[in-house]
Write a structure and sequence with these properties.
Elements: H1 2-16, E1 47-48, E2 68-82, E3 86-100, E4 103-115, E5 126-130, E6 133-145, E7 151-158, E8 161-162, E9 178-187, E10 190-203, E11 206-220, E12 225-235, H2 257-264, E13 269-280, E14 283-293, H3 296-301, E15 309-320, E16 326-336, E17 351-352, E18 355-356, E19 365-376, E20 379-392, E21 422-438, E22 443-454, E23 459-470
Antiparallel strand pairs: 1-8, 2-3, 2-23, 3-4, 4-6, 5-6, 6-7, 7-9, 9-10, 10-11, 11-12, 12-13, 13-14, 14-15, 15-16, 16-19, 17-18, 19-20, 20-21, 21-22, 22-23
InterPro entries: Wzi_sf (IPR038636)
Protein name: Capsule assembly protein Wzi
Organism: Taishania pollutisoli
Length: 479
């Protein structure tokens, strides 16, 4: 009877308080326990990092964290492996979190050096290459204020992720962190988010600023169906017409951007997307569709027109709780038409500091991936495999794979298809063994085994990696 009363009290608190005073979770999440919640119309999970909420089904008293606390721990990132030669990355820093009533603060800082190699590079805010080595400083953090159960306000230097997939076609944490401000509101079955992003690109000679404003609506239509709508506009403070700074029109938290863009007479980059997620117990079918440009007449008459720029995602994931641990699985398909996310120059491209803001492959690809994760207490085994067809540029033309190449360099207006240009078929399989050393500081030791097969060149590479790392943010090596 006592347990039943405990469950009832926690459930009542949870259903009344859409946003609790429980801080902000990490983007890094090995077993996404909160991405497939028990059926509840007031829980929205597609935007990460999530605002922490009570675990409604747990009977442990520690699920209710203290209103005030301070936590500090060392952060470490030391790993190395053999590609064509020995490569490495080192980093030392600090992990700090604090909460005082309705305020929450966290920061992770890391600095070090590494080898200029695709596996050991870092997408940090400060990066300087010198020969075959680089030096970096990475700081990610946020301040959160939750005045009541309806509103949450955040500012910081960090990434966001929108979606239920391994990849996101809307907004991903793959790229370089950047300053942001965020407003989130939750009421009834809706969660509405406004995100202001402050980014930059290195144009020969200097860094130049560019901005983005994004809206995301999450509607739990039923206990098993979630519908999401996403829109974003990316613009530069100075174009050929005027120096406008951050357009006040784009500060409006509820406006639709495409009409606003036309009213400004600008060529700002606007993208819109829709997601559909279906929960069936501990399993979920999820999808995303993203649209950059679109012409219905061309779709009907000439679907290969270069400016029919869109992408799609379809996946299924779930978990089991066998007697020997927790098991998570995922199968996902992603596709992107040529020239998706690209524009006339880097200041209007959907990217930041040379990296795409969404799917790491950019445009012009098919991809299918699968993953399996098994966890037992401190032990974790991960299996990940992916196959992709990616079209790359050649002969000085842009074939729509590199988003930082202007679409004005395209070789033709029609006849565009996925895989055009220099088509490469690549498979990557990763087997990881992981052991948790210190849970509060999220420090793990791991061994990774990478097997990469280039079908076009019939090249096979095996890369072993060993290291110790504070898992404060994702370190993508799987694309």
């Amino acid at each position: 009877m006592t347990k039943l009363i405990h469950i009832a009290i926690i459930w009542i608190i949870g259903t009344v308080s859409l946003y609790g005073q429980y801080g902000i979770s990490h983007l890094y999440e090995e077993l996404p326990q909160d991405s497939i919640p028990k059926s509840a119309v007031d829980l929205h999970t597609a935007l990460k990092p999530a605002i922490r909420q009570p675990n409604f089904l747990s009977l442990k008293r520690e699920v209710q964290p203290k209103n005030n606390y301070f936590f500090i721990a060392p952060a470490v990132d030391v790993n190395g492996g053999y590609t064509s030669q020995m490569n490495y990355r080192t980093g030392l820093g600090v992990n700090l979190q604090a909460q005082a009533g309705k305020w929450f603060f966290k920061v992770g800082a890391m600095g070090g050096a590494g080898s200029v190699d695709s596996l050991f590079n870092t997408r940090s805010y400060y990066y300087e290459a010198k020969g075959n080595e680089y030096y970096y400083a990475d700081v990610r953090g946020r301040i959160s204020y939750t005045p009541n159960e309806i509103f949450n306000f955040q500012v910081g230097l960090d990434n966001q992720f929108i979606g239920e997939g391994s990849r996101s076609l809307f907004l991903s944490d793959y790229g370089v962190p950047h300053p942001f401000a965020q407003i989130r509101t939750a009421f009834w079955r809706l969660e509405y988010t406004v995100l202001y992003q402050f980014m930059r690109e290195y144009v020969p000679g200097a860094w130049k600023s560019k901005y983005a404003t994004s809206h995301h609506i999450s509607l739990n239509a039923t206990k098993w169906l979630n519908i999401g709508i996403f829109e974003t506009v990316l613009f530069q403070p100075k174009d050929t017409l005027l120096n406008r700074g951050y357009d006040v029109e784009y500060l409006n938290p509820v406006i639709f951007f495409r009409p606003q863009e036309y009213s400004l007479g600008s060529s700002d980059n606007v993208l819109i997307g829709v997601s559909l997620d279906i929960k069936l117990g501990n399993h979920m079918f999820y999808s995303q569709g993203i649209l950059d440009e679109f012409n219905l007449r061309e779709i009907k008459n000439n679907p290969s027109w270069w400016a029919n720029k869109y992408g799609a995602q379809l996946g299924v994931k779930g978990r089991f709780h066998p007697v020997f641990g927790s098991l998570f699985y995922r199968v996902e398909y992603n596709m992107m038409r040529p020239y998706m996310y690209s524009h006339v120059n880097e200041m209007q491209t959907y990217g930041n500091q040379g990296h795409v803001l969404a799917h790491p492959l950019g445009g012009n690809f098919h991809e299918i991936l699968a993953e399996l994760k098994w966890q037992k207490r401190k032990y974790l085994v991960k299996f990940f495999t992916t196959y992709r067809l990616k079209g790359e540029d050649k002969d000085g033309f842009s074939y729509g794979g590199d988003i930082y190449q202007p679409y004005t360099l395209r070789p033709a207006d029609y006849g565009n298809r996925i895989g055009q240009g220099l088509g490469r078929n690549t498979s990557r399989t990763i087997l990881t063994f992981d052991y948790e050393v210190w849970k509060p500081a999220k420090i793990h030791v791991f061994i990774e085994n990478h097997l990469i097969i280039q079908a076009n060149t019939k090249q096979i590479s095996y890369i072993p990696v060993i290291g110790v790392r504070s898992q404060l943010w994702n370190d993508y090596r799987n694309y």
